């Protein structure tokens, strides 16, 4: 019943229910295909060649031409050929009866009628008698119109040879086609109306495939049996997907088991609702409820804390009065001692965040603390941490990176206490950074996740930074060229992307100090970007060093190495703190500070750094980072990754193979089991041809990794949230749903993809155009916009420093420049502004400020 994939026999749409119908059908097809049909097509070619008629494409057109030719032949027996030269309409009117003319509301003078009647009789062949000249002329006029329809060249009608035989062949062909129409069934309805090319193609294919017709009755009987069993849908599904014949039994087996499972689920009330849509709805509801639960915890805790605090204050009025007096005294140290010495104070301030050195001031030596959490204490001496460690009565939690060097608390705790690696945070991490860190030992903590569209990248900016080491220092810790380049990037960011937060991280303290001073100096007199450098925001602009960047998070990070070359271009292989025991940890902190873009500004070319002279972990990590940024700054796209996977890696879960094929047959782009090396693998990534350079939907499933995850929150919410953070739309499919209704799951995914495509490709409502000409007779206005008089130049002095002009002055000057109606692009308007301000020296900072004026104008 199922042929090879992608092939169909010519008889697959024919219905023959009896073996006795096979021979007549095949004989009729062969005789028509190789006999009368070629004769008719040959007749048409002959008629076209001899008469100049347009080639007939269908039997109906050919019959019209034959009737016309036969009529013309009959007319030429009565009239001479010249009668076809001009219209016979006037002669028809002249030879008509008076009643006919009255019925048609036509009036013709008697003299004109006599002349036209004589003209008509002159066209009659000598010796022929015409009983009804009017009727013959009507036939002439009809034939003349048909002749002009099929003979664009005009001229006298010409008769082809063998017209009677042509008519007989056409008649036989019509009879044969009507017979075949009945024999071949509904698929060939209207066969007589098809064009000759299609008839020849279809009948030729049927005549050539005589093997298929021999099994046709058996095939039809089988189809009837299948219909009786209610399996029409299965056969249509197999046919539409082009399932190979050898897979038919397996497909039937799958359909049987899927049906059995579906029946079990629907017959047992405990198992109802395990279809794909219901399961996805339950997971979505779980995510929403869990998110709402987590968000409500703070409010609930605060409410309970307030109620308990009010009760404590009411019960212990004396202690409450002592705390009020400590607050009113204004002494911070006194207040801390009062809180630590009072059980009420400790209850009212249950959570305290303090540096380790101040922990001893919070309470007396006998005070116990239920829980102590250490965070960011990698560089703190153990002596400072002894007090809070000694007062922890229940649990001590140490938060930190145990891979950091030294003998600090994190390294010591990693040896003495049970270790638990916290899962990766849900915050977005630059994809190249994540892959880089995963390759350098952080793979268990940082899982790279690919972006569905543009892959992540690192901007590598190399400057020619040279200088001399500072007194008492071997390294060239900072160069003027690198400082200037960083300042340029900061100013450009403040002007062009003020909505994105930014921090600059230098690899040593001296360079951080120079960068901070240079940025402050550059923006001191620039009101256009003053708001970006305000310090009262949630994530203000910041310049810091590697040692102090832990915990910082910004949309974009600029890492400036600072280390430069000698005046002779030699690299000094001394990298200060980076070569220390915590150098690698500090650099990792800097890389994890960015949610999005990472820009590296450096005077160090990794190809010029000698690996044998950078033996420490921190310096090697810096070298590898620079090498990655220079030579491989951009991650490959998911489509590029998919092309490099071998067959085993690219194969999805076996249950998803069928789903993938169905999605592909729906016209979608399907990339199985794809993701960055060492990162999260997406079982199926789905795209659409209308958005060819990206993937849209990440299809997740309950595979082995899903089932082995014990945490429901991490399993059903965490990874979906992470994928959405990177721009994916997620869709969860469960094994039972794919097994029972793979086409339904494919359809749901298709609808989700189409919704995305519709949103992304929906046309933007155009802004109405302002007419060039404005006229109003009432007010006497009639001039073009370009002809409007240009106002006088604003009173703005030339030649001052750019910082001396206010935003309003720059905007007024730009409006005056644009007042002449001349079309200018952005660079031309910047040049005009600079000329009107009298700026003789222009640099990247000045151009950036002027570009911002043009864009906001």
Brief rundown of the structure:
With 857 residues, the protein is an alpha/beta fold.
Strand content: 5-15%
Helix/strand-derived category reads alpha/beta
Tally of separate helices? 33
Tally of strands: 13
Overall morphology: elongated
**Main beta sheet, described?**
5 strands, parallel
- Helix-residue proportion: 40-55%
**What do the pLDDT scores average to?**
80
The termini sit apart by 71 Å
Radius of gyration: 45 Å
Record the strand order, biggest sheet. 3-7-6-4-5
Low-confidence stretches: 1-7, 772-788
Provide structural commentary.
The radius of gyration is 45 Å and the shape is elongated. It contains 33 helices and 13 strands. The protein is an alpha/beta fold and 857 residues long. Helix content is 51%, strand content 9%. Strands 3-7-6-4-5 form a five-stranded parallel β-sheet, sandwiched between helices.
Topology at a glance:
Blueprint (H helix, E strand, L loop, with lengths): L21 H30 L7 H18 L12 H6 L3 H6 L6 H13 L10 H18 L12 H22 L11 H13 L1 H5 L1 H13 L3 H10 L6 H20 L8 H40 L1 H13 L2 H10 L1 H6 L20 E7 L6 H10 E8 L9 H8 L14 H12 L15 E5 L17 H17 L5 E5 L2 H15 L18 E4 L8 E7 L22 H9 L2 E9 L14 H15 L6 H7 L2 H4 L3 H12 L3 E6 L7 E6 L9 E5 L2 H5 L3 H14 L3 E5 L1 H6 L1 H20 L11 E4 L4 E4 L22 H12 L7 H12 L6 H13 L1
Parallel strand pairs: 1-2, 3-7, 4-5, 4-6, 6-7, 10-11
Antiparallel strand pairs: 8-9, 9-10, 12-13
Helix pairs in contact: 1-7, 1-8, 2-6, 2-7, 14-15, 20-21, 20-33, 22-23, 26-30, 31-32, 32-33
Q: Could you name the key traits of this structure?
A:
857 residues; 5-stranded parallel β-sheet; 4-stranded mixed β-sheet; 13 strands; 9% strand
